[in-house]
Amino acid sequence: MFMNIVITILSGIALLVVAFIFTVTLEGIARKIEARIQRRYGPPFWQNFIDIFKSLTKYSISHGFIFDFGILMALGGTIATVFFIPAGSLAVFPGIDNVFVVIYLLAIGLLGMAMSAVGSGNPNASIGIGRALAQMLGYELPFMIVILGVFFHHGTSSLSDLVSIQIAQGAYNVWLMPIGGVVAFVSLIGMLGKKPFDTFIAPAEIASGPLVEYSGKYLGMLMIQHAFATFIEIGLFVNLFLGGGRTLWEFLLKFLIVYFSIVIISATIPRFRVEQAIKFYWKWPLILSFVQVIIVVFVMGRR
Fold first, then answer.
1. Per residue in 276-299, pLDDT tens?
2. Distance of CA 95 to CAs 5, 115, 162, 171, 228, Å?
3. 215 within 8 A of 288, measured Cβ to Cβ
4. In the chain, where do the E strands start and end?
């Protein structure tokens, strides 16, 4: 019993370290790729590490208890969610890593971020949070419909079990349910806040929206939170539709491919207005998600 607890704790620490280093490194490389696509030089790929650690050493301006507590809630909720994302052979809670638990815990982190940003009193932050919540109504509905179809077909909502099933049958869900895979991928772009769905950040319009009032160690903590949130959202897609990985390296390779595919798309298209983003999600992705579920229920059935 004691050894199991020790192994779980060490696995959790290892997963956090891997998630942080790998995701922040990819974010740095992505900045370089985007710059080259847009005919700029761009910063070195390690610049994000410098920005985070330098910010953590600086003084932060507080706007009250809600502002401060929301940051801790955002970071704590997101870190707790990471533990339920299996990364190949590195899984902290195999078998109990239910997708609904992941969504619930991630919502706590997002709620903390929203609460803190609104507590700053800056109108740009409130506008950004309003846009983010409105956009969530757009991408979450088709995404949830698609993954409910996945759960129905396989008879489980455990990420570890879904990965094992895909590996055992030798076919990923993205091949079995290609329409759903496309819908989930488009929804993932919105979750990550990449163009054309970065309306809630929009630096040229609302000065980065929710992040406008953060500085110093608070900004550094939110950069860490963003890295973990990225790991969770892409990791969720990789496990649900790409079979996770037999090993950690296989999982990270699939993660890398998905992430850079989104980066390249984001670097080449303009931003939607918030109403355009919602209308888009409630049009084709929503229609296609219902089509996929109908196919799963009436054609594919349960395994």
1. 888 889 888 999 999 999 999 888
2. 16, 32, 10, 21, 21
3. no
4. none
Q: Please choose, from the candidates 134, 102, 105, 108, the residue with its C-alpha nearest in 3D space to the C-alpha of residue 238.
A: 102
Tokens encoding 266: 């984001």
**Residue 209: left (phi > 0), alpha (psi -120 to 50), or beta?**
left
Name residues whose C-beta falls within 8 Å of residue 5's C-beta, 6 or more positions apart in sequence: none
Greatest Cα pair distance in the chain = 59
d(CA 114, CA 217): 18
d(CA 45, CA 33): 10
Task: Please compute, for residue 152, the number of CA atoms within 13 A of its CA located in the half-sphere on the CB side.
Answer: 17
Distances (CA, A) of 73 to 31, 65, 78, 103: 28, 12, 8, 15
In terms of Cα–Cα distance, which of 48, 101, 33 is closest to 227? 48
Q: Which amino acid is present at 167?
A: I
Torsion angles phi and psi, residue 234, rounded to 5: -70, -40
pLDDT in tens, 68-119: 888 888 888 899 999 999 998 888 888 788 888 888 888 888 888 788 877 7
Return the residue matching tokens 């710059």: 35
pTM of the model: 0.92
- Nearest CA to 275 out of 182, 141, 137 is that of 137
Structure tokens at 264: 């390249």
Signed CA dihedral, 45, 41, 229, 126: sign only: positive
How many residues make up the chain in this entry?
Answer: 303
Give the pLDDT score at 1.
65
CA distances from 168 to 154, 240, 243, 246, 259 (A): 12, 14, 10, 11, 25
Structure tokens at 113: 């971020």
Bond preceding residue 196 cis, omega within 30 of 0? yes
Calpha distance 273→276 (Å, rounded) = 5
